[in-house]
Structure formats: structure tokens, C-alpha cells
Amino acid sequence: MTQHKDTIYSSPLDAIGGFAFDERVVQVFPDMIERSVPGYSTIIAMTGVLAERYAQPHTRCYDLGCSLGASTLAMRAQLDRRDCEIVAVDNSEAMIDRCRALIAADSHATPVSLQLADINDVAINNASVVVMNFTLQFIPQSQREALLARIAANMCAGGILVLSEKIRFDDAYLQQLNTELHHAFKRANGYSELEVAQKRSALENVLIPETLTMHRERLQRVGFTSVDVWFQCFNFASLVAIK
Known about the structure:
Blueprint: H1 23-36, H2 40-54, E1 60-64, H3 70-76, E2 85-90, H4 93-105, E3 112-116, E4 127-133, H5 141-153, E5 155-166, H6 172-188, H7 193-203, H8 212-221, E6 226-233, E7 236-242
Parallel strand pairs: 1-2, 1-4, 2-3, 4-5
Antiparallel strand pairs: 5-7, 6-7
Helix pairs in contact: 2-3
């Protein structure tokens, strides 16, 4: 399918609304996330590698907040003949519609069930792999622990959660440094100062990052026994949590 360049914030906007995964974003999402998230392609590829290691036969793998299904496709490529099912969930109808077409065009055999739903309402059953790549940061903070506790409670022993997030730092200097480095990354990928500023305003009250300490402590609190960061670039990180 044709990939469009992200120009959503390239012209001055009179009013900047909260960021939403609507049809405009769906049209440019692959370009937007590659140019905005350092290490995104590595995280997606290694999600497949982690799934190959931890997916157990006759279980389910969940991609919560699947967007266009990049993590689903990465897992699917590694799970042929594993007798697993992938459940991919997103609350954006535009995302699910495009994801369905991308899954249909994929040649791998592992079955995929697509669900248009709020991930807080999705039943988690018999899970050996759960992936949340840049999803939890959009969930209200008051709901995050309950969601993770439900995932842990319904995960097989030895299962894995892959949790990728934008993070913040308690240290003011590191927070400023990593914010500046992230903006430099975006400028190096062709975004203008205007685009960086307007996108930041749109996300300000929508994407709420937390520190790595907060993530680690909460994951251990809800029942994961081993938690660590396996990837970090600037203020973006991916953690693994083992049940």
C-alpha cells in the first residue's frame, strides 16, 4: 500500500486539538512513527524475536494497541507452526480497517483475530506473549495498574510482556537533554521546528510518560517476577517483564 509522508503539522494551525489516531494519522502513520520514535524499527523487529522465544504452543499472543499491525506482523513471521493465535486490538476504527488489509496481504499462516475495542474491555486469556508498543502512555494513569494486573493474572507461567514507552526522567538535566535529543532526531528526519512544536502541543495532555522506576515497580507489584529494560534510545525505552 502507498505510504504517505506526514505533513499534518507542517502548516500553522489556528487551534491545536489533542492528538487522535484518526484517518489523517492512519494515512501517514508508518512515516510518522519511523521519523518520530528513535529505534522504532528495532523494537518492532525484536518483538518478533521475543515472541519466537516465549510464545508457547496452544496459547494466545496479544498486540494491545496494534495500530496498523506492525508488531502483529513481526510476531506472525516468527510463529509459523507454533499453533498460536494472535489477538490484535485497537480502539481506532480507521487503524483496524487498514490493519485488516495489511494482515490479509501477509503470507504467514498464524491466525490473527482483529478486535475494535478499548483494551481495558478486552478479555485476556491463556496469554504467553502480550505486546504493548507505545500504548500504555495513552491510557489514563489511574487505569494503568489495573490493566497490567489483569494481563499478569491471565498470563501463562513463563510468559512475557513487552512494554515500549516514551519515558520521562526525575533528573531535570536528563529530562531536558533527552527532550532536546529527541527533537534533534526529529529535525534530522526532516521535521521542521513548527512541526515539532505543534506535534508536541497536540500530545501534551494525551501522551503522559512515566519514569522507568515507576514502570519497573508497578510491573513487579502486579506479579511479574523479572523486569528489565532491553532497549533505550533517548526518552524511548522497551521493557520485558516475565511472569
